[in-house]
Amino acid sequence: MKDLKPLIIEITVGILLIGVSFFVKFDYYSTMIFSMGVGIITASVIQVMRIVYWKNPKRQELYEAKKRESYINSVDERKQLLRMKAGYITYQIMTLLLLALSFILAWMRAGAWIIGMIFLLLIFQCVMGVMIYRILQKKM
Q1: Which of 5, 37, 67, 110 could join 17 via S-S bond, C-beta 3.0 to 4.6 A?
Q2: Crossing angle between the packed helical segments 60-75 and 77-107, to the nearest 10 degrees
């Protein structure tokens, strides 16, 4: 039951969002709020179904094996290194992609606020990368 409590709260929030969407006057915002409510409810119901499926006594042994394998994977040094390397490569790719996207939008004469927003995302990503690196460096 402890696992289901946050999901039940999320389902309730989703129902409230759907209810609020009927009272919003603008179609754009009403559709957005309705979609958020449906999305939250759908994700929470799928999680509840997954928890109920794995808590079934017939699947308990398989579930324990899956949890044990997940634990081993989380503490395995090689897999930790692979996750860190994948994150680093993704960080580099996203940095280059944001930079290229801002140049392409500048060539296409997109709005200055769009180009500025993407460029600020690039700067934010670089600053956060350096900050996280320094925090992790101090911890180790």
Answers
A1: 37
A2: 70
Burial (CB count <10 Å: 0-12, 13-18, 19+), residue 40: buried
Give 81-113 pLDDT, tens digit per residue: 887 888 888 888 888 888 888 888 888 888 888
Q: Which two tokens stand for residue 23?
A: 């009272």
* 3-state helix/strand/coil string of 80-114: HHHHHHHHHHHHHHHHHHHHHHHHHHHHCCCCHHH
Is the pLDDT reported for residue 1 higher than 70?
Answer: no
Task: Quote the Cα angle for 57-50-9, to 5°.
Answer: 115
Average pLDDT score over the chain: 87
Distance of CA 134 to the CA centre of its chain: 24
For 121, residues 6+ apart whose C-beta sits below 8 A from its C-beta are 98
